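About this split. The held-out portion is used to measure sequence recovery: a designer receives only the structure tokens and must propose an amino acid at every position. Recovery is the fraction of positions where the proposal matches the reference. Here is one held-out target exactly as it appears in the evaluation file.
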């Protein structure tokens, strides 16, 4: 009887393998922050929506209902994300390059005109 109780108590202490592992961090989602021109500290609203299919929507502002919108693509290499996007209301194309932290909650970088990822200003974004 004592050995049966020991076996049952040992069995009840086994690790539950049915608990799923947490999802790895991801860039996918809404990011809000600020940008600034050339050497100005970022103070103007800036938002990016990274989609799981490699596309990005960029908003000139934090109120996405009234901000100018752009569509483009992004790619990730290590802890660097680069984007290239064109505004829907004009032919203006921009590119960015940013470094994000290991838990995908903060990024900062630079942007440029056309394919250049720098030269026009800097920005930072926080995942929402």
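Reference sequence for scoring:
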């Amino acid at each position: 009887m004592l050995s049966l109780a020991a076996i049952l108590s040992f069995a009840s202490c086994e690790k539950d393998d049915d608990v799923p592992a947490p999802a790895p961090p991801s860039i996918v989602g809404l990011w809000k922050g600020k940008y600034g021109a050339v050497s100005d500290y970022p103070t103007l609203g800036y938002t990016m929506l990274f989609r799981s299919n490699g596309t990005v929507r960029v908003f000139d502002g934090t109120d996405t209902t009234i901000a100018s919108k752009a569509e483009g693509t992004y790619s990730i290499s290590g802890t660097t994300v680069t984007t290239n996007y064109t505004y829907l209301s004009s032919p203006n194309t921009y590119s960015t390059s940013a470094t994000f932290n290991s838990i995908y909650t903060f990024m900062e970088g630079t942007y440029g005109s056309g394919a250049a990822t720098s030269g026009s200003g800097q920005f930072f974004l926080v995942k929402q």
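Annotator remark: The chain has one domain: 28-127.
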